Amino acid sequence: MNLQAFMAEDFMLNESFVRYCLQSNDEDVAFWNDWIARNPHKRPETEKAREWVLRLGVRLNASEKQEEFSKLRAMIETDRVQGKRRKSYLPYVAAAAMFAGAVVGAWLWKKQPRTEHSAAMAYTTYHADSARKQVILADGSTVILNCNSTLKVPASFNQQERHLILQGEALYDVQKDDKRPFTVTAGQATVQVLGTVFKVRAYLFENNVQVSLLSGKVNVAADNAATALLPGQMVKTSRGGLIAGTFDAARESDWRSGRLLFKDASLQEIANLLEYWYGVKVHVAPRNYQAIHFNGQFMNKSLSEVIASITYITNLKINISGNELFINQ
Amino acid sequence: MAAHNLFPVALSSPHKNIAPLPVPDSKPAAGEALAVFWTEFQQHNEHGLYKIYHELYDNLYHYGISVVLDQQMVKEAINDVFVELWKKREQLIVPDHIPNYIFICFKRRLSKLLGKEHKRSAKYAGQLFQEPEEQSYEAVLIGMEADTQLRHKMEKVLAQLTARQKEFIRLRFYENMSMEEISLKTSASVRTIYNTLHTAMVQLRRILSFFSLTLLWYLVK
């Protein structure tokens, strides 16, 4: 196939080129953008072909679509602002105080925690999807909620006790208060805290719960086992019991400061680190990969930004689908 | 037209006019992904809604255009539907088939907008609003050209093409079927389809360069 000899009609009949026009496949889009950039003399033909593909397919082009999307986004943003004003008149009681305490980070302008009104169990739910979130609780304790994680705070938090429910991963820095015990439930494990910094990891795609203690003291209980942790120790649940382990303190302190560091990382190390850092399940397609040595440092960057850099440098193909990530070459 | 692509499931529409809304076939897990996005936006995360929007935009646009031949109205109606979904997010349940659900909302919205138009035009005065009729692919291609001259040219070039050429063009570019899929459907060989389309594209291209020339001529003048 000699692309140099291609005329508009030949491009139109090339299925990869059509996918580029429709932007339905990232690989094709990347390939043709690159090819056209390197062969500017073919641009009149490719442009003609693209115009016809869109015309015969009765489709909008990318910039028209983008314009429509911007309009939609503007309308939804407006609705958000109005909705927020309306909601602030609702009698929030305890949740309101907590909410006020939590309105700190800029992210709260975008994401509003949700209070479920049911008689016995009223929760404020915090959800971090693509970026991590900091939540400041009514007692002054802080929680860093990792990506793809949900934290439920009962409306009764800080009354007689301090209890939280976690799905995903979060780091807790707990204010000492002997009268009101601080507990976190995650999957099969419950952690009881006594003024402390610790981390709980309980993603649904991993079938265990991990608790790491950075400082202070915690008691961890699973279905049929319980143990106390000392700083630097980690336990994970296994079939209702607990297994002791260790964690990488340097990596943990990097995580806290928001520094994601790749040092001469291989493909597997990249996959592991992304899975650890962003709480996504990473799948690596089995294939013979060229050896990869990736170096890079990211400060508080979103998953998509990090992926953009990695793919640019390594030529790997990485696709995100929901909470899963697929690596190809 | 295009009844072959009707959803075999769930829709159970009493209207003959419900058009096919093909879920992009390149993504087998599209249904599940959509359900995830749906839950996201119900939990006040607008990005879930945006993902559904991007996923379904082309399909909605297609159907809209084939019913009203008015780009502006179709674009407006699509955005209206999504704003409405966002506003009602707390009352909504997760529909069994998300594309179909959104599609029906869209159809209603179009009917409403069309109704308004019809009230304004005297031609339809006193006439009850009717179900929108879907236009043929050819009528859509011609009707989409805003400029009268171009519309005539388009009409002309389509008249020059054979029925078979037009059918292949529709399947390949409008329905977005691959050559293999068209081959399976029409039992023509891939080679034949390729050659037939190629001849048709050359014919189109001649007309297109003619378009550009007339345009130039206008500019120079």
Automatic annotation (TrEMBL), chain A:
<dbReference type="InterPro" id="IPR006860">
    <property type="entry name" value="FecR"/>
</dbReference>
<dbReference type="InterPro" id="IPR012373">
    <property type="entry name" value="Ferrdict_sens_TM"/>
</dbReference>
<feature type="domain" description="Protein FecR C-terminal">
    <location>
        <begin position="259"/>
        <end position="327"/>
    </location>
</feature>
<protein>
    <submittedName>
        <fullName>FecR family protein</fullName>
    </submittedName>
</protein>
<dbReference type="Pfam" id="PF04773">
    <property type="entry name" value="FecR"/>
</dbReference>
<keyword id="KW-1133">Transmembrane helix</keyword>
<keyword id="KW-0812">Transmembrane</keyword>
<dbReference type="GO" id="GO:0016989">
    <property type="term" value="F:sigma factor antagonist activity"/>
</dbReference>
<dbReference type="InterPro" id="IPR032508">
    <property type="entry name" value="FecR_C"/>
</dbReference>
<feature type="domain" description="FecR protein">
    <location>
        <begin position="129"/>
        <end position="219"/>
    </location>
</feature>
<feature type="transmembrane region" description="Helical">
    <location>
        <begin position="89"/>
        <end position="109"/>
    </location>
</feature>
<keyword id="KW-0472">Membrane</keyword>
<dbReference type="Pfam" id="PF16344">
    <property type="entry name" value="FecR_C"/>
</dbReference>
TrEMBL record, chain B:
<dbReference type="InterPro" id="IPR039425">
    <property type="entry name" value="RNA_pol_sigma-70-like"/>
</dbReference>
<dbReference type="InterPro" id="IPR013324">
    <property type="entry name" value="RNA_pol_sigma_r3/r4-like"/>
</dbReference>
<comment type="similarity">
    <text>Belongs to the sigma-70 factor family. ECF subfamily.</text>
</comment>
<keyword id="KW-0731">Sigma factor</keyword>
<feature type="domain" description="RNA polymerase sigma factor 70 region 4 type 2">
    <location>
        <begin position="153"/>
        <end position="204"/>
    </location>
</feature>
<dbReference type="GO" id="GO:0006352">
    <property type="term" value="P:DNA-templated transcription initiation"/>
</dbReference>
<dbReference type="InterPro" id="IPR013249">
    <property type="entry name" value="RNA_pol_sigma70_r4_t2"/>
</dbReference>
<protein>
    <submittedName>
        <fullName>RNA polymerase sigma factor (Sigma-70 family)</fullName>
    </submittedName>
</protein>
<dbReference type="GO" id="GO:0003677">
    <property type="term" value="F:DNA binding"/>
</dbReference>
<dbReference type="Pfam" id="PF08281">
    <property type="entry name" value="Sigma70_r4_2"/>
</dbReference>
<dbReference type="InterPro" id="IPR013325">
    <property type="entry name" value="RNA_pol_sigma_r2"/>
</dbReference>
<keyword id="KW-0804">Transcription</keyword>
<dbReference type="InterPro" id="IPR036388">
    <property type="entry name" value="WH-like_DNA-bd_sf"/>
</dbReference>
<dbReference type="InterPro" id="IPR014284">
    <property type="entry name" value="RNA_pol_sigma-70_dom"/>
</dbReference>
<dbReference type="GO" id="GO:0016987">
    <property type="term" value="F:sigma factor activity"/>
</dbReference>
<keyword id="KW-0805">Transcription regulation</keyword>
